# Entry
Amino acid sequence: MRVPTPHLYAAYRAAAGAPVDTGESEVPEPPLTRSVHLAAEVTAPRSARDFLAAACSAWHTEWLSATAGLALSELVSNAVLHAGTDLDVELRLGDGWLRLSVHDGSPVLPLPRQHEPGAFGGHGLDFVSRLADSWGVAPGPDGGKTVWCALRADKR
# Structure
């Protein structure tokens, strides 16, 4: 009697429609998340950057701190300036992406603006769109909104 090799056994399982063990984990790692509640104060952007730096250090993704910190500062600054409500910051690392989310209590959705060169203010979302790989906004069920951006988390 011939005993099937592991390679043939995998082929038999695949032919039968059974999942094939590739030797790699078939269960993806759950995303890592951290969140913090901040008051709408002038210190909120700095607190958010410090929070991000600590998370990046814990997750061994320190190389993301500078760029992600700039993007998060803009998102938090916009929430403080335009919403004027307490805000929640969530960091989520998973599937090769770092997602930064800022939820505030204002229902007013942000829109990028066109500016004359040298104009003061109003460049925040344009800045975020240049720093991040993607960004967006979603109305919240509580009447507020979440503005988010995502950066590739793999070393480029």
Observations:
- Residues 10 and 16 are 10 Å apart (CA to CA).
